[in-house]
Design goal:
alpha+beta; 436 residues; 21 strands
Length: 436
Amino acid sequence: MADIQAFRALRFNLAQVGMLSHVVCPPYDVIDPALQRRLLEMSPFNIVRLELQPEQPADDEQSNRYTRAAQIMREWIREDILVTETRPSIYLVEQTYRVGEKTHTRKGFMARVRLEPFGTGKIYAHEETHAGPKADRLSLYKATSTNLSPIFGLYPDQENSVITALEHVTRQSPPIEATDHLGVTSRIWAITDVSAIQAAQATLCNLPVFIADGHHRYETGCRYLEEALLAGEARDENAPQRFILMLLVSMGDPGLTIMPTHRLVDGLPGLDAATLATKLSPYFHIERVGAGNEAGFAAWRRITEDGSQDIIALGTRADGNWTLLRLKPEGVEELARRVPEHTPEWQSLGVSILHRLVLDLLAPGGGLKFRYVHEDQEAVPAVHTNGPQGCDLSALVPPCEMDHVAEIASNNEKMPPKSTYFYPKVLSGLVLNPLR
């Protein structure tokens, strides 16, 4: 079962730090150097100083970004910058954001969730992970003994019964509010009502939880627990090391948005639309859309209007052309031959078709380099740009749907990296979960 619990969080003392907006930050993996500098300048107490402490030239095993984060955290606790809640709570969270001309509100709640290795219980992964980020986060966990940012988890509740029950007990009090650098506003209410917490626990205990974002941090939490057990710690079943901070959102929430992740590919110099068609036509229906940015945007509109996973648009820098690909039955058979270890559901994903068929046909020897963007306004011009901002091939792929995430994760399969982008990210610093 998915075991969720209230906990005594560490929270910023607004009497000391001022506005919550000045001390929160996005997760570490979307903070580039420019944003890191901006966050550091925003407040001496911005949590980026813990989440992504800048490296120094003299860093070594004794003094480094992790030891500095731990020292800063101890100082903040000692000086009441961070204070511990007096009562165990869970936290209702609303995020209001815009995509294009539309405003959306996503609702969920934060709690600590009992860790279980993927494949052993009710918590499922849907994306592959890499060793480097897990080693980085493990070093930070060990130094700070704290979850600084929540995992983003999804659970099936089409009626949104859990959030409805929690909202009933929160509307009597005003929220604490923070707005991030993208204009996303997060509102948070602490819930101490025992009956409301128990109702959420009773519902979630019978439901699966699918990790939407934070796979590296979740696996790091499992590793941190393993090491604690080997050291003779965390023997109590409710020891804090056995849990991880998670924002839980219903899969039926109308504010859920999954954005596409387009690929900007280098390593295919000279590739043009004619060569592309020659190599791919045995497995795809080929349609030349035209040249230039407008043709790229038109190709993306075709993909979004179609709504299926088996249509991809490719832009080639060598001639500036855009080509639409639609998988033939022969392509379905060829992909199944190439990746027999994967289910038909996995093979039907646009990102799977792109990586394991299209790009393997275009570059059988590999050696490609990738960048990832989420807006067609970024992906289309890149193929018409020279220099480091440009690319040899721009691939526009349809976004995955919620049903794809649940179906593939339930099969204990993992999508290719960067298959989903749940927007917006969940802020670090709203609440922190002590691991000791």
